[in-house]
Amino acid sequence: MELVTLLYTGLLKINRESDEKLGNRKKYIGSSDIAGCPRKVVLEKQTDSDPDIATLIRFTRGHLAEQFLLAGLKALPKTSFSWKYQKQVKHKNQPYRAHIDFLFESQGTIGVLEVKSTSGIPREPYESWVIQLHFQMGLVKECNHEKTVKGAIFAMDLNEAKIKIFDGFQYDSIIYERLLLKARHIWECLNDPTMEPVTEKGPLCAWCKYRPECPAYEITDIPELPAEEQLQEFLGLKEHRKSLNVEIEKLTQFFKTGISNTNPTGRKIKVKEAILELGRRFSRKVDPSLKNDYPEIYKKYIKETPYEVLLVHN
């Protein structure tokens, strides 16, 4: 048996064991369902298929991030708050539930923490993360009317060993009611084959396996170019370029720091036969105050030149 097959078999076993703990996902609407596109959620629940190895690796990466935090909490001495891991909460009347990564309770406040493992931490939390958290806070509030419910998102980049906490979220009845309507729509579509689930466009649409037949992308008035392989190669190279730029910047900072620490006066170091030097360059730009102080001159000499860019709409 090939190593990749062994890995896939093992990860699939772990995923199935996890699913057993969560229950039959076809029997309820979870918080991760609310965060996604209704059409994709309905089709996934109606289809009996195992996830591919890339998806399984992402699932496992998410569990690893949770384990880091879990280990830290277990190592704490006695605290003024209580906490629970993988706490299940249910709607009082409807088949809606959530498995909360970490739930904290102290006096009159309950805190909901959603853990996300990601490749590159965003400046702001993704909308799907926020939606999932709001639905979780709403379900917690259903069972704890008298308590204040707050939420946060713990994002971890395992590759870069970086973390970021997005906090300040609170239960919002208006947002929760809107998400309940979405949950009801998904549930009704699952139980009524004649209903068409709505679609929601998002940044992950390009990787959705249900994209080919998606009504959100029925474009009949634009001629088609049979170049799918070239497009995928183009998108892949763009992502690779981003990664390369990040790595180049890391190494640049590494060598700059090395020169500053090793030879701050001479501003040079040797690496084998190569000489690395901290050079100095100057750039020229128009001072922004020119526009305010001399608007007529600014308008006269600032020229706009059109140029073409390639935009990919998913």
Structural description of this entry:
This protein has about 325 residues and is an alpha/beta fold. It has helices at about 5-20, 30-35, 40-45, 55-75, 125-145, 175-190, 230-260, 290-295, 295-300, and strands at about 30, 80-90, 95-105, 110-115, 150-155, 160-170, 270, 275. Helix 1 packs across helix 4 and helix 5 (about 125-145) packs across helix 6. The two termini are about 40 Å apart.
Q: Which runs of at least 5 residues are low in confidence (pLDDT < 50)? A: none
Structural class: alpha/beta
Q: Report the mean per-residue pLDDT as an integer.
A: 87
The helix/strand order is HEHHHEEEHEEHHEEHH
Q: Which outline best applies?
A: globular
Radius of gyration of CA atoms, rounded to a whole number: 26 Å
Total individual domains: 2
Quaternary state reads: single chain
Distance between the termini: 38 Å
Strand content: 15-25%
